[in-house]
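User: Hi! I'm working on a homework problem where we have to compare a predicted structure to a textbook description. Could you give me the structure for the chain below?
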Amino acid sequence: MIASLVFGALTGLGVYAVVRVFVAPRPGLATVLTRIETGQRSMSTHTTTGLESGGMAGRAQSFMARLGDRIEVLATERGWELGKVRTDLALMGRTVGAHLATKVVAGLGLFLLAPFIWGIMRLFAIPLPATIPAFAALAFGVLGFFLPDLAVRSEAEARRRDFRRTVGIFLDLVAMNLAGGRGLPEALLAASTVSDHWSLIRIRQALANARLFGTTPWVALGELGREIGVEELTDLSGALSLAADDGAKIKASLSARAATMRRKELTQAEGDEGEKSQSMLVAQMLISTAFLVFLAFPAVAQLLKA
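Assistant: Happy to help. Predicted C-alpha cells:
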C-alpha cells in the first residue's frame, strides 16, 4: 500500500512537471526585457552546423536547447535568482536554461535508474521489496538534480582562481603600458590583447563593449567583476575610477596591487600544498597502522586462544 502511494505520487509529480515544462508559457514584456539584458541563450543568434542538424546527437542537442529555453522562461517568470549558481554560470559562459535543463534530465535519468534495475532483478526472479526501489529512485533523483550544481561550483572555483592570476598579470601589463606613455584606456586595451587566454578574452570583450556602449573601461571591468564574482576586478575598477577622476598616479598603485595579488596567490598555494602534505601524512599513518595490525593479529589471536 505504501509503495503504491509513493509510486503514484511520484508519477503524478513527474507528469505535472513534464506538462508544465513543455506547455510553453507566454512571457511578458518584463520577462523579455530581462532575458535581453542578461544575455540569455534564447535571445542570442546561433548558426546550426551540418553536424548539429542531423543524427542522434543533433536531435538531442536541439531537444536540450528547447527544454532549456522553456525552463528558462519559467524560471524568469517565477523570479528565480539562483544567486551564486548564476554567477558561476556567467564565469563559464553557460546559460541558466542549459544548466536547469541538465539538472532536470540528470534527475529524471537517475530517478528512472532504480525502477529499471528493479525490473531487471524481477526478470531474473531476484526477490526485492517494492519500497526499496521507490526510496532509491527518490534518492537517486535528488542526487541527479543537485549533482550539476556541485560540478558547476567546483569548476567555477578553479576557473575563478585562474582568472585572479590573470588579473595580477593584467595589472603588470597595464603598468608597463602606462610607463611607456600610453593613456589609461589605451593601456587597458593593449594589455588585454597580448594573449588569447579565455580570461583575457573576457576582459577584452568587456572593454570593446564599453567602447560600443559609450561607457568607461573601468566601469565595464567593474560590471564584469560583479557578473563573474571576481572581487579583484571590482576593486581594480574602483581604483581606476579614482585615478581617472582625481588624477592620482596609477602606475605605482597598479604595480603594488599586482605584487599584493601575487603574494596572496603564493600564500594560498603554500597553504594548499601544506594541506595536501598533511593529508598524505594521515594516509601514511593509516596504512602503517593497518600493516602493524595485520602483523600482530596472528600473535594476538594465539594468545587469546591460549
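For your comparison, note the following. The first helix runs from residue 2 to 22. The chain has a mean pLDDT of 79. Good luck with the assignment!
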